[in-house]
TrEMBL record:
Domain Calcineurin-like phosphoesterase stretches: 164-361
GO molecular function, one term: metal ion binding
Domain Purple acid phosphatase C-terminal: 387-445
UniProt entry keywords in alphabetical sequence: Glycoprotein, Hydrolase, Iron, Metal-binding, Signal, Zinc
PROSITE patterns per the UniProt record, alphabetical: PROKAR_LIPOPROTEIN
Database matches in Pfam families: Metallophos, Metallophos_C, Pur_ac_phosph_N
Keyword Cell cycle: no
Cofactor dependency: Zn(2+); Fe cation
Spans through the membrane: none
Family statement drawn from the similarity comment of this UniProt entry: Belongs to the metallophosphoesterase superfamily. Purple acid phosphatase family.
Protein's UniProt name: Purple acid phosphatase
Protein's gene: LOC110752681
Length: 483
């Protein structure tokens, strides 16, 4: 029996209230724990014979096509795909008109084993020297089984470049995952910031681990072939499985999902940075060493110095494990990274930190806990205008289900929290303003549940914020109403 769900007037009230809270930056208000109870699809993976996993027609046809940014500034993409039967060609033909493939680039092919599973032939091809703000068509594979896709490059790096990011975490391959993906694809998102935990293939054993990476690649292709997904790694990518003889961490993930880490002088594909339109995006690895003097720590120290808010006003950090989380699930797991990096995040006035891992949604006020040290005793997070907003979007819909138990009472720093599946969008309008939405999957309809106007942490300071805010509160409320 299908449950009927509609936006309850009470919920609308909650949404508007939370919106106003953040807009006023009145930290320390009692936060909101949404009482919304969602009717759930069972959290089981979609069966292998479902059409979302269909293998494209034709001998050795390219499958699992995905693209990601290929350089520091958005004039390159890395195009990746798998051919199942033989290596075939790693060439990408591309151009700015349909069927007009004036250019070509040559990639590489690789393969790996996992237990007794043998992967297909995994191709990665860097296509660079592209123009900004341009639609490109591309073709991969050969003969009758070749396939064609397209993507649009971002506008040039400019403080006022407009751009919309989607934010998805912990996706998996259930019917809830499909709902999240479909809802995201109806948004105006132009690139996805992915928060780790891709396929959940590690929930399987033996050869099925590899097979479920393949099905996931085919499942997300409907989006990943057409717009870049900016990857970060989660615990489900580690796949440390000594009982299968598999002890190389991140093996499947690193073989399949390339990142442009060299362009940001990183020594490891698990942490890197890109600049896109008006945003500087830093990707961290929760599961690689990050304490003082480690390569990741040294890299981040240097990368933060390279951030130029005059060119890229929006400073966004992605990581898998949330630093501020008041859910019972993964409670305090982010504490070790908080101790190491939080003072930098405050010093550099990071705008937003997105994390996944917890299968629920939560947003914080601007708070910090950098005064605490082992002798001071000031252990409570306090309102801090220079601190980032922390947002957990680990609710993509994987087979582990929702994290439904929040700590009670809700801590002062927590502005809004709800255990439901969904995705977010961040619509950067110019150097001072961005619109943020969290959209709950509501069994068919796309519902904007938590929304606010974000003022840039660097440029926002120089403006008469209060006045602006009133105006935008009203305008955005209208937007929510018609969403
Ligand atoms: C990769 O493919 C080649 C050519 O088919 C094959 O000989 C080799 O065993 C494969 N390597 C792995 C690690 O599967
Ligand atoms: C620890 O906190 C106290 C009180 O805020 C401060 O005076 C002291 O400098 C801090 N020590 C360190 C090593 O940061
Ligand atoms: C940015 O956009 C907002 C909303 O449209 C506008 O009010 C503001 O003046 C713009 N800021 C700049 C610097 O153009
Ligand atoms: Fe996770």
């Amino acid at each position: 029996m299908a449950a009927v769900i509609r936006m309850h007037p009470m919920l609308l009230q909650l949404t508007l209230t939370s919106f106003v809270f953040l807009s006023c930056l009145r930290n320390g208000n009692a936060g909101i724990t949404s009482t919304f109870i969602r009717s759930e699809y069972p959290s089981v993976d979609i069966p292998l014979d479902n059409k979302v996993f269909a293998v494209p027609k034709g001998h050795n046809a390219p499958q699992q096509v995905h693209i990601t940014q290929g350089d520091y500034d958005g004039k390159a993409v890395i195009i990746s795909w798998v051919t199942p039967d033989e290596p075939g060609t790693s060439k990408v033909q591309y151009g700015t008109s349909e069927n007009g493939y004036k250019f070509s680039a040559e990639g590489i092919v690789t393969n790996y084993t996992f237990y007794k599973y043998k992967s297909g032939y995994i191709h990665h091809c860097l296509v660079d020297g592209l123009e900004h703000d341009t639609k490109y068509y591309y073709k991969i594979g050969s003969g009758d089984s070749s396939r064609e896709f397209w993507f649009t490059t971002p506008p040039k790096i400019d403080p006022n470049s407009r751009y919309t990011f989607g934010i998805i975490g912990d996706l998996g391959q259930t019917f809830n995952s499909l709902s999240t993906l479909e809802h995201y694809m109806q948004s105006k998102g132009q690139a996805v910031l992915f928060l780790g935990d891709l396929s959940y293939a590690d929930r399987y054993q033996y050869n099925e681990v590899g097979l479920r990476w393949d099905t996931w690649g085919r499942f997300v292709e409907q989006s990943t072939a057409y717009q870049p997904w900016i990857w970060s790694a989660g615990n489900h990518e580690i796949e440390f499985m000594p009982y299968l003889g598999e002890v190389t961490p991140f093996k499947s993930y690193l073989q399949r999902y390339a990142t442009p880490y060299l362009a940001s002088k990183s020594s490891n594909p698990l942490w890197y940075a890109i600049r896109r339109a008006s945003a500087h995006i830093i990707v961290l690895s929760s599961y690689s060493p990050f304490v003082k003097y480690t390569p990741q720590w040294r890299w981040l120290e240097e990368e933060l110095k390279r951030v130029d808010r005059e060119k890229t006003p929006w400073l966004i950090v992605l990581m898998h494990v949330p630093i501020y989380n008041s859910n019972d699930a993964h409670y305090m797991e982010g504490e070790s990274m908080r101790v190491v990096f939080e003072s930098w995040f405050v010093h550099y006035k990071v705008d937003i930190i997105f994390a996944g891992h917890v299968h629920a949604y939560e947003r914080s006020y601007r708070i910090s806990n950098i005064h605490y040290n082992i002798t001071s005793g000031d252990q409570n997070p306090i309102p801090d205008k220079s601190a980032p907003v922390y947002i957990t979007v680990g609710d993509g819909g994987n087979q582990e289900g929702l994290a439904g138990r929040f700590r009670d009472p809700q801590p002062d720093y927590s502005a809004f929290r709800e255990a439901a599946y969904g995705h977010s969008t961040l619509e950067v309008i110019n150097r001072t303003h961005a619109l943020y939405h969290w959209n709950r999957n509501d069994d068919g309809k796309k519902i904007a549940t938590d929304a606010f106007v974000l003022h840039n942490q660097y440029w926002g300071m120089n403006h008469r914020r209060r006045k602006l805010k009133k105006h935008y509160v009203r305008k955005s409320l209208e937007q929510i109403a018609i969403y």
